[in-house]
Amino acid sequence: MKKVMTLAAAGMIALTAPAFAGGYSDPVVEEEIVVVEEAASSLGNTGIALLGLALVAGIIAASDSSSQ
Question: Which residues of the chain fall below pLDDT 70?
């Protein structure tokens, strides 16, 4: 019986050896990088468009295209 127990223990040790074949290394924890972009507002571009429209309207109003 003692030989059977010794053989069983040797078999269990033999089966667990491949699990540590590569050695143990600490797990690598990577940091999460979160990029937050604020949504661009179309209201900011509206002011430039209105300024351009006012400039064109001013040029049209200032030009004298009468045929006299």
Answer: 16-24, 40-44, 64-68
What Rg do the C-alpha atoms of the chain give, in angstroms? 41
State the DSSP code for 63. S
**Residue 39 and residue 20: Cα distance in Å, rounded?**
51
Residue where the block lists tokens 């590569």? 22
Compute CA distances 43 → 37, 47, 50, whole Å. 17, 7, 11
Task: Measure the CA–CA gap between 2 and 8, rounded to whole angstroms.
Answer: 10
pTM score, whole prediction: 0.34
- Which residues span the domain enclosing 49? 1-66
**How many domains does one find in the chain?**
1
